[in-house]
Design brief:
288 residues, alpha+beta, six-stranded antiparallel β-sheet, 7 helices, 49% helix
């Protein structure tokens, strides 16, 4: 008899817990997903990457809501039992109140275990994968990187200013400050000492975006390029048309995993290793 009562209360709690958890999670995730729109509008990532990244952050939202949802679900379950006079039936049938308290305590232990599992295993895996998506994604919404009459430095080492944009998509009076280290159209490699360190300033009367072999290019017309060498000399080169391969540049989106996105076992090993190094370097303290 008691087992059936416990199962009934447990199922009622789980139902209220799941409904409350996903109701709050849906609201919070929607607000959070709106904030993530900067990945598309500011950083130029694909809309598919934005959806996947937003979806993978749900586990973090669920984990933070578990304690609060447990409290709400417990109150709702007790109020429902009281409203339907089911608690009176339980008391008159001889069921001890301590037994109900112990049931709620065991459920709390279960919820704690679920939250620890989410925080130590599920969250680092999903969040790290989400960060990997940003790291490996390519620029898609390149036109969103240029804002009229604003200095835009979304791309690392590249600052762009555009005075006007026509209806046909043509940009006018484009100023570009390029501080990246690129040689022969190859991405800069910090380990490669042969990369140049010159800074370039580009001006073009007009320009537009296009895709060549699936890669985004900025085509510039009627302008000049000024390059500052390491010795301070400036070389000026005029052009009728040139193009910049934007796929060689990276956005300023954080791609290195954060602490909460790192594997728990890795963090524990790192903490033990740092403690060991500290003891070896400073010596093991002894009591006098």
């Amino acid at each position: 008899m008691k087992n059936r009562i416990y199962k009934y209360i447990f199922y009622e709690f789980i139902r209220n817990f799941i409904i409350t958890l996903f109701a709050f999670a849906a609201v919070i995730w929607t607000i959070q997903a709106v904030n993530f729109l900067d990945l598309v509008t500011e950083d130029g990532h694909a809309f598919r990457i934005y959806l996947l990244y937003s979806f993978l952050t749900i586990s973090k939202v669920l984990t933070k809501l578990i304690p609060f949802t447990f409290l709400i679900a417990s109150i709702i379950t007790i109020l429902k039992l009281q409203r339907d006079n089911e608690l009176i039936v339980l008391w008159t049938s001889g069921l001890n109140k301590i037994s109900i308290a112990n049931l709620i305590f065991r459920i709390s232990i279960l919820m704690t275990f679920v939250q620890l599992l989410m925080a130590t295993t599920v969250n680092p895996t999903t969040l790290n994968y989400a960060r990997t998506l940003l790291k490996n994604s390519e620029l898609q919404f390149v036109p969103s990187l240029l804002k009229i009459k604003q200095f835009n430095d979304t791309l690392k080492g590249l600052t762009v200013f555009v005075e006007n944009k026509k209806v046909d998509g043509m940009y006018e009076n484009i100023f570009i400050k390029d501080d990246t280290k690129i040689e022969k159209n190859q991405p800069f490699n910090e380990n490669n000492k042969n990369n140049t360190t010159e800074s370039s300033t580009i001006y073009a009367k007009s320009g537009f975006f296009t895709n060549i072999d699936g890669l985004p290019f900025l085509v510039l017309k009627n302008g000049s390029i000024q390059k500052e060498k390491n010795n301070g000399k400036i070389n000026t080169l005029g052009f009728d048309q040139t193009q910049i391969n934007l796929s060689l540049y990276q956005t300023k989106t954080i791609t290195w995993p954060k602490i909460q996105e790192s594997n728990t076992i890795f963090l524990i090993c790192l903490d033990l290793l740092s403690s060991l190094v500290f003891l070896i370097y400073f010596g093991i303290p002894t009591l006098k």
